[in-house]
Design brief:
The protein is an alpha/beta fold and about 240 residues long. The chain is built from eight helices and twelve strands. The longest helix is centred in the C-terminal third of the chain and has 16 residues, at about 175-190.
Length: about 240
């Protein structure tokens, strides 16, 4: 059983004037599903990228622990090798990096089997055919195809913990089902997941024992379960304070 823990975290985007995340606590254990909901600009992406150690964000205060080890100032690549994964809200295009080569090498440095057959199976699982593997990383991919590419990585890397930043935003119903399927598979394999979403719809396709955290103005204002997610879908974020 692994634990990922965030204590009293304050995060500032380096280019911003103000601190965006203002004291967040979160504890996630293997196989658990935690859902973060919050309006646009409430700090969801800042929290994700701060946790992952992106160079564009500064941890102003607080601590991040993976299995008791303080990883607050560890470089992003090292956190990834320790078993943290992020599926980006907007995965960037990376020219001159071939997707198949990227996956082979990423799996190798993680000590995992990077056979082409395994990579192709993960792509098929998320509804991407082999042609996408011959392309440069996300170059010319549609929004939905990028999200599915991120989910293929989730399946392949089998991380201890994954943060999924709006994997269901801007995708069609079939893609959403594929994405929910991969999340279920990762949970069953023991990955602890933090899912950022605006929609209760994807949650209907996931195990209903998830924890909901409502992020507004950089702080968690409420915690609950499926009922809280449904009430937010119905009535929005009014009444949670800011
Ligand atoms: N690079 C940046 N420069 C200036 N402000 C930023 C930057 N990144 C994020 N912010 C600000 O931080 C706040 C939170 O943004 P973000 O974390 O993207 O929110 P969310 O993902 O919840 O929509 C917003 O007010 C946003 O404008
Ligand atoms: Mg965001």
């Amino acid at each position: 059983m692994s634990e990922f823990r965030v204590e009293n975290l304050f995060v500032k985007p380096k280019e911003a004037d103000e601190i965006t995340i203002k004291g967040v606590d979160l504890s996630v254990k293997s196989g658990e599903l935690h859902v973060i909901m919050g309006p646009n600009g409430s700090g969801k992406t800042t929290l994700s990228l701060g946790i992952m150690g992106s160079e564009r964000y500064e941890i102003v205060d607080g601590r991040i622990f993976l299995d008791g080890e303080d990883i607050t100032s560890m470089p992003m690549e090292e956190r990834a090798l320790k078993g943290l994964f992020i599926a980006y809200q907007a995965p960037p295009e990376i020219r001159s990096v071939n997707f198949l080569t990227f996956l082979r090498e990423s799996l190798k440095i993680r000590g995992k089997n990077g056979d082409d057959s395994i990579i192709k199976r993960a792509f098929a699982r998320v509804g991407l055919d082999d042609d996408f593997l011959d392309r440069e990383l996300y170059v010319g991919f549609s929004g939905g195809e990028r999200k599915r590419g991120e989910m293929a990585q989730l399946l392949l890397f089998h991380p201890k913990f994954a943060i999924l930043d709006e994997p269901d935003t801007g995708v069609d119903v079939d893609s959403m089902r594929l994405i929910a399927g991969t999340i279920n598979e990762a949970l069953e394999k023991g990955t602890g997941i933090v899912l950022i979403t605006h929609y209760a719809r994807i949650l209907e396709l996931l195990p209903d024992d998830y924890h909901v955290h409502v992020l507004i103005g950089g702080k968690f204002r409420a915690h609950g379960g499926p009922d809280l997610a449904r009430s937010i879908e119905k009535s929005g974020f009014e009444g949670f304070g800011s």
